[in-house]
Amino acid sequence: MIRHKLFSKGEYIHALITNSKFPNVLIPVRCIIHDVEFNDKMPRYQIRIIRIYDDVDFLKRYMFGMKYDKSFSGGYTKFNLSRKRFKTRKELEDHINSNWESYLIVVDSVMCSKTHTEIIELYTNIQDFLIERKFKELFELSNRSTYSSGKYFYKSRGIFEAHLKKFLGERLDPDPEYFNKLLFKPKSRELDDLE
Fold first, then answer.
1. Residue 40's pLDDT band (cuts 50, 70, 90)
2. Are 41 and 13 spatial neighbours (Cβ–Cβ below 8 Å)?
3. How confident is the model at residue 85 (pLDDT cuts 50, 70, 90)?
4. 143-175: buried (b, 16+ CB within 10 Å) or exposed (e) per residue?
5. Over 70: is that where the pLDDT of 186 sits?
6. What pTM value is reported for the model?
7. Domain-by-domain residue ranges, the chain?
């Protein structure tokens, strides 16, 4: 059952766009819905970008040269732009708006909201999840026994936790189970029980 707000063609909304090369890099935008596709899974919107909220340096790294879904039936939009040409985000927005037919993008409805506040809240929650997943990944990579002579090796979870606590400082989650949830690593017995 769909539990998020549905929008209509022509409506101004906010969305998180992502490309195929960097699927975990979400770019918040303000947009107009150009077309709507309803299917049995989830509605999708073809959007026309009006405003981009990231700075031009970030956009040059993660948007320029990247492919985005263009239509419901396939195809892609490529931001094949010269990095030297655009000095500000406003110049980029003006270019996209003056050639908007070339820069239509398809997004899933769950990545859309009515207000800027709502899209930033969604974006922040997703970013928190992605960052915490990287913390876990970093612990997994630096704690492997075969890496024990490596520069970044951590002998124990306790030492990694202490360094992470120092790094996080006041941002540390007050939940006493935070590190148990964040750095959970199943033991061999627990993995054996999965079969």
1. confident
2. no
3. very high
4. beeeeeeeeeebeebeebbeebeeeeeeeeeee
5. no
6. 0.85
7. 12-117, 143-192
